Amino acid sequence: MSSDQSVFCPGPMSRRSFLEAGYLALGGLGLSELLQQRALANAISGGTNSNDDTAVIFIWLLGGPSHMETYDMKPNAPSDYRGQLNPIATNAPGIEICELLPLHAKVADKFSIIRSISHEDSQHARGSVRFLSGRKTQSVNPISEFPTVGPIVAKMREHRSVGVPNYVASSPRAYGGGSAYLGESAMPFVVGGNPGAPGYKVPNLSLSNGLKNRLDDRVGLLKAFDQMRKDTDLNGSMESLDDINQQALSLLTSEKARQAFDLTQESDATRDRYGRHKWGQRALLARRLVEAGTSFVTMYMNNPDVPGTQKNRIHSNWDIHAINGDLYYDLGVRMPPFDRAVSALIEDIYARVLDKKVMLVVSGEFGRTPRITVQPGTKSKVMQPGRDHWPGAMSVLVSGGGAPMGQVIGSTTAKGEYAKDNKLDPNDLLATVYRFLGIDQNHEFLDRSGRPMPILPHGAPISELI
Fold it and tell me: TM segments (predicted)?
């Protein structure tokens, strides 16, 4: 898993280096990879979208949050199942959630909770691939043998040119996920770190004046490829190269992109409402990006980085085994910033009339074991509670997408162990996302061996979210 690091342009550049910067703006694409992807693209049909103005924000909770301490509490279960926290009522009749989510409770009429999604893989990388691609894998290669949802959306919408990156994420790939046979051109424009930090610069959009002046000569740069095309283009595989370069150069010089990434355009009150922390400012940036035209945004909410906390009692993500952290101390630290960021994003989706254009999905790769375990912490050295991996039940929050809100979809058994009513698969959620985006889930890509692979092998849109 890559850390959140920013890469800055070093200053004077050769023309070759400049072209490489353009490719980097599209997700690290180099010329050899571009040639490979274009050769592959000759065998792939286009699949033009009919809903190009829609967008999805994925808040990814790496490690797998506990459904029993968020959206599916079991107050009547035995104490070693229900845990230490209590449910609270919300403004949506019949919906109760964790007491650590009071701001969620005020906007519950603007989201729906799916409680009956489950799958079969309890390993992080494979579980992520299962959830985000709809396919089972035995690989833990972070590139993945199957493309996940973000790269698929990027590939299906690569024809769009809207002045902002089509796919943005706060990390290059989900744990265990990636673009697979779609190639590096389908990877995200990466914006790591805290986009709200003073002096924060977005990589590849913070270029020197000298380099920007050189960018103005786009026609000359494209002509530089003419001779190479004559020498190497034997089968038409480079005929889209000009378009790719124009997209890269357009992004690097786009005032619209710079404006979208600039959080100082927001009022202090708005930034405070989201929270002056990494998670809040990432959520705010996600909203600005989809308003500007980005199709798919993945923002990670892993380590809350709250000052003054006991680091030996918290974990770097939501994988809160007893050996990793004290479940209830950890949740006491991470839930307030999570509550603030997500609730503010939901408020804005509706207040800014984005609810028919934007769908928000909040999830991790699986849930946690319904029964609490107590073990010595690796760092704390004391006995502490935790929950282990559990794909048999999990909760997913969905907001917007033009769908009915204020509802609970499905249920789990009395101890939160398994889906009980309206059992759903991650593929059903993905089918819902693709339907909303106007993407045919049966559209086929060729894998590395030349086999046609549909976007989803199975799954149907969730009827309650249509």
Answer: none
